[in-house]
UniProtKB/TrEMBL annotation:
Pfam families: CoA_binding (PF02629), Ligase_CoA (PF00549). NCBIfam families: PRK05678.1, sucCoAalpha. The active site is at H249. The lineage of its organism: Bacteria, Bacillati, Actinomycetota, Actinomycetes, Kitasatosporales. Heterotetramer of two alpha and two beta subunits. It comes from the Bacteria. It comes from Streptomyces ardesiacus. This is Succinate--CoA ligase [ADP-forming] subunit alpha. Residues 4-104 form the CoA-binding domain. CoA binds at T17, G18, A19, E20, K43, I100, T101, E102. Pathway: Carbohydrate metabolism; tricarboxylic acid cycle; succinate from succinyl-CoA (ligase route): step 1/1.
Amino acid sequence: MAIYLTKESKVLVQGMTGAEGMKHTRRMLAAGTDVVGGVNPRKAGRTVDFDDRAVPVFGSVREGVERTGADVSVVFVPPAFARAAVVEAADAGIGLAVVITEGIPVHDAVAFTAHARTTGTRVIGPNCPGLITPGQSNAGIIPPDIAKPGRIGLVSKSGTLTYQLMHELRDIGFSTCVGIGGDPVVGTSHVDCLAAFQEDPDTELIVLIGEIGGDAEERAAAYIREHVTKPVVGYIAGFTAPEGKTMGHAGAIVSGSSGTARAKQEALEAAGVRVGSTPTETARHALDALGSPAPDGAARDGARA
């Protein structure tokens, strides 16, 4: 089982013919993703060869959906065109839009996430690495070779920390890993993923990665306390960040005690979540919760982020 993305998912790539779209479409195909087409109105009717597979280019998302039955779109278009791209995907009946693009204006993200809710389209991102169900499908830029199918569900604001925890826990494996993005407005929250993992029968443990800024982790803690019966372990990036500074992601801004790593850690721990002081310690907490021995080298702690 998995959440949001399975081997049955049919993926369109908006912006497939650009440099980033081409590179990551090739990687998605190599991971077994069923990429059924790209979208570029100026190159409609062409095909793009990716090793042993020729992928057609459609003039619109609607055409791609009608011709292929696509239900997922991965968006690689430039920031100025991202709002229109997501709205187009939602209006065409796409069920899942994965928005990789960074630098999208907040008012555009507000507009397209609100519009997507009216059509029933789930948005992952923006400014995210996407999601992967190892062994089934990969929608985005997550390296497919750092984890195998397994029992852990992962939800993370940070792309880099997604990769690190996947690598740390590669011997156990993952049901689905979701990078939700770190912008102030995102389409899918920690809480959304927690609810989906709670309902997934093959997810036995949840790893939650947060970071400074906002109150998403505090809201996740409240949801865990009331609704999640599976073990959850967590990590919060940004303990050493100075107050009042935007650090990395656009949403990672701290004002006073609001949004600090310490406040988030305390909220999660009050909900029964074991929070690691480093990614490696977080991985050890996960292994302990599953009753699995730590692999060689897992005892080495990195610096606190």
